[in-house]
Amino acid sequence: MTPDWRRVGALADFADGEVGGARVALDDGRELKLAIARRGDAVYAFFDQCPHRGAPFSELGLLDDEGNLLCGWHYWAFRLSDGAHTVLPNLVVPCYPARVQGDAVLVDITGARRPAVAGIEDPKEEDA
What CA–CA distance (Å, rounded) separates 24 from 109? Predict the structure, then answer.
């Protein structure tokens, strides 16, 4: 499949060490809401909804020192590298390839879809 790179903003639009939001109009008329995380000159793009309880990362997301995206509601942590939960690695936030080209942040939305998100129970102590 051919990549479909879309500009989601300028690098300066996304503060270093923080999570912001972007919206991309899809060809079928839908809109894809993304959370954009920035660490230095590196950018990461995720579907803008925590799979735990649906919190929007673009409004409540945090970055920790270990390179994780944290949900601001319950502090579930997902790796920036692949969107996997740090304790339950089979639980993954959909992520999209992102890059900086010049001063623009680009995201490849090839095959983008809104994933089904259902509330997931908190892991039990013995599962963590």
Answer: 9
Span 26-37, average pLDDT: 91
Angstrom distance (rounded) from CA 90 to CA 94: 12
| Contact assessment for residue 63 and residue 39, using Cβ atoms and an 8 Å cutoff | yes
Q: Residue 77 domain-assigned? A: yes
Domain presence at residue 122: no
Which structural domain range is residue 95 located in? 5-112
* Parallel, antiparallel or unpaired: strands 77-79 and 68-70: antiparallel
Domain-located, residue 120: no
As a 3-state breakdown, the chain gives helix, strand, coil percent values, each rounded to 5, of 10, 40, 55
pLDDT of the residue at 117 = 45
pLDDT at res. 1: 80
**CB-CB contact of 90 with 120 (8 Å):** no
Higher pLDDT, 124 or 65: 65
Estimate to the nearest angstrom the gap between the alpha carbon of 44 and the chain centroid: 7
Identity of the amino acid at 5: W
